[in-house]
Amino acid sequence: MKTAALDLWVREQEGLHVLTEETIREIQLKKLNRLLAREKERGGFYRDLPGHLSALSALTELPFTTEEDLKTHGHRMVLLSQAEIARIRTEETSGTTGQAKRMYYSAADNERTVSFFAAGLSELVYPGEKTMICMPFTGPGGLGELIAGAVRRLGAEPLPAGIGKTYGELLRIVDREKPETFVGMPVPLLSLLRLRGEQSGLRRALVSADACPETVTAEIERRLGSRLYPHYGSRETGLGGAVTCPAFSGMHVRENDIIAEIIDESGKPLPDGQWGELVITTVQADAMPLIRYRTGDYTRRIPGVCPCGCPLARLDRVVRMGGTTRMEQLDSRVFAIQELIDYRAEQREGTLYLEGYATDLGGSLPSELLGYPVRWNLSLFSEEKRPCYTAKRKLL
To answer: pTM for the whole thing?
Structure first.
């Protein structure tokens, strides 16, 4: 089996001939101490933390950073001047304060992300081919723009499909351009494959930004004729966090940039193999580094060495803590209906309301899901329809 591209990327970034678990820990401790010293010097949000740790294990003694901290004190976490900020990403939250969560990035942060994306995508994007990108395009430094930059770096052509287009518009891109690869959320990919089948020309895909139930994964892979490459990332990880290797045995973390911990409900660190909340420390972030940030994402570190031989830690599938799991369970059941193209779900007064569209309305539909009665409102699919979700799928 070939060496994971991310393994080679880390070696290149850090000037190493060989990557081992020991060298990874050394890199992380060195960068963590550099970050702690920088916080002291700049009087940053973390200025009261120790300026130096003698061992990486001492990281677990430091306090957590929370989403509320980001909303309330995020501006104090920025270690650069406003003139040095290349991009600000704002996420409105549902908190009572009405404050928004903002993440700040420098040009160096964006370049690091493009470089990481290129390493991960090189497993499936080949020179001279076309890649359909169904991610938000929001201007310089936007997610879609960064992915497109990585695709170009690999000698391939990006097709900026974005989000929010009608299925007719997406199908015309597929029919006209015949892309070999797809980058985007899993359900729109499944929908396109159901609508076009083998005629789509799509052969490989990286899925991200949403959970993908095993049943959906299995059908996508069957229709593509190849394995999916799941990716995990968030605003807090700098958009890129972990990506699948040729062994398809979990997602390797970019550990030279991110220290990943798993904790239980009480905040106690868990050993590899046990499921819990993902906590990250972004030791390479230039503009807005985070120390022990509680992501609210649920996963585990897969124990042992990956079959590909890469020593970088691997994350199992990642789901959002809370209602996401129920949406996954719904998707697993509902997308078993082969004629279904897309749907959205809402729970009200003990009943599930499912609204969407299908290519045939004659089949039988389940009257109960997740222990609740179901009311269906399906319409016949037409090309002016749009994907039911432009972000993570959730039960409303």
So the answer is: 0.93
